[in-house]
Amino acid sequence: MTKSGVVVIGLGRFGGQVAESLTELGHEVLGIDENAEIVQKLSDVLTHVVQADSTDEEALRQIGVTEFNRAVVGIGTDIEASVLTVLALTELGVGEIWAKAISAKHGRILERVGARHVVFPESDMGVRVAHLVTGQLLDFIELDDGYAIAKVCPPDELIGRTLTQLGLRTRHGVTVVAVKRAGKEAETALPDTVIERGDTLIVSGPTKKVEQFGERP
Ligand code: ADP
């Protein structure tokens, strides 16, 4: 194991997917879960999978977790186990800890015990789906508080004009980052890019502006 590997603890739906994706991306992964069935199921998929209680700092040390600088904690439902696991990783000197939280309070505690990155997969996906079902947005991601990127069909009035002519940044406060023609890959938007019928736009800007742009009739 090298410092470039990642420890993934709690191989449920979230952690299991993180571990599989990291493996596909070519990273060395040490997976840990207390559930023997899950460990068995993932033993063909991941390079190293160990059954252990991750709240036990000594057990983690013996497995070799101190060899790693990065860890992802995917335990969510059992908040106590999630917090104690992050604490154990902190005590063992793992620098980059990513942890899943199921509520804002849970997230705050995880930060206090040493998680450098806290993610909220369920509430983030909830926000995303809310945007997709209510507006004309085809996809939506809030990258940071108050700043978003979205995929949107251009309203008819934009068709046949260049981005310079449209002046969307001045008129609507959004920037067109890329344009995807039907059946082709997305291309970086240029000032003389003409919007055509059937195009999909990737736009970014303050969340409110992106939402308003998506709600246009
Ligand atoms: P998800 O919703 O992503 O499936 P869960 O919180 O339900 O997340 O599952 C997390 C995983 O973490 C489960 O596979 C469970 O066996 C594992 N887990 C929970 N507590 C511990 C622990 N103390 N040590 C190791 N693994 C744990």
TrEMBL record:
SUPFAM superfamilies: NAD(P)-binding Rossmann-fold domains, TrkA C-terminal domain-like. Residues 3-120 form the RCK N-terminal domain. One of its GO terms (biological process) is potassium ion transport. One of its GO terms (molecular function) is monoatomic cation transmembrane transporter activity. InterPro entries: NAD(P)-bd_dom_sf (IPR036291), RCK_C (IPR006037), RCK_C_sf (IPR036721), RCK_N (IPR003148), Trk_Ktr_HKT_K-transport (IPR050721). Pfam families: TrkA_C, TrkA_N. Residues 135-217 form the RCK C-terminal domain. This is Potassium transporter.
